[in-house]
Amino acid sequence: MSDPRKELWEKRKQLGRSKYLILFGLLPWGIGLTILTSIIEIISFKALNPVWIPIRLLVFFFIGFFVANARWHAMETRYEPYVRRP
Predict the structure, then answer these.
(1) What's the angle, vertex CA 29, arms to CA 44 and CA 11, rounded to 5?
(2) HSE (CB half, 13 Å, CA atoms) of 71?
(3) How far apart are CA 68 and CA 28, in angstroms?
(4) What is the residue-averaged pLDDT of the chain?
(5) What's the N-to-C CA distance of the chain in angstroms?
(6) What distance in Å separates the CA atoms of residue 32 and residue 54, rounded to the nearest whole number?
(7) Greatest pairwise CA separation for the chain in angstroms
(8) Phi, psi of 51 (to 5 degrees)
(9) What pLDDT is stored for residue 29 in this prediction?
(10) Which residue windows are transmembrane per the record (predicted)?
(11) Which residues, other chains included, contact 65 with Cβ-Cβ below 8 Å and sequence gap of 6+?
């Protein structure tokens, strides 16, 4: 019996690390959280301060990078055999 999570990891691994970081880190975290916080700002303050949008993008891209990078390394250690590197 095969593990569907391992098969999913194999497909995502074929994308490459850079593309994985962009598709599963920068875009969803960066753009998604920027939109979410902007909506919350509009609801709360009835206005949107455009100065905060690039700042939010930068901060959330940064967070998304580290989250996706941590997930990449976690999946590598979980599903890849241990290889001793000199």
Answers:
(1) 150
(2) 18
(3) 10
(4) 91
(5) 34
(6) 13
(7) 58
(8) -65, -30
(9) 94
(10) 20-45, 51-68
(11) 21, 25, 26
